[in-house]
Amino acid sequence: MRTLKPFLAGALLAFAAASALAIERPNVVYKIFQFPADKAPRIDGNTEDWDIVPEDYVIGTDQLSDTVNGHGTKIDPKDLDVRVRVGWVKGLNRLYFLYEAYDNYWDFARSDIHNDIFELVVDGDLSGGPFIAAMHPNKLLDYWDAYFRFQSVHAQNYHIFTPAKD
Known about the structure:
By secondary structure, this protein is mainly β. It has helices at about 15-20, 145-150, and strands at about 1-5, 5-10, 30-35, 60, 65, 75, 80-90, 95-105, 115-120, 155-160. A hairpin with a 6-residue loop joins β7 (about 80-90) and β8 (about 95-105).
């Protein structure tokens, strides 16, 4: 089993705010489980594939912060309680995530983005650099030049929208 050093950030309102509000944790190592090649998790809604992942690989609500309702605010587990596990398979260029969430309020009626967003940022080269075009250090570049030269160069950004409509 190996560990990598991704850092996690909680829900964010806008992409432009992500670098300013992300919770970088340079001294924290999150465990990432190495699945055997013949036991890679399937993306089929059945979480039994993850039963082999030890409990000390779980990233819980206590390790996350709310970046919308107050930067760095602890999340009340009676309101939102999550468990995240991360895995990989040697030789495959991908990470697997199992995101399990309890929320005291789910709204499936609206299709807009108004519910919780779990945002994950993976800084694979450990550069710590920003990853959003608006944060490009050369302010003389127009938005699209900055985007194509900079977006996701230092890190990758992923969102899990909850609940997902349909």
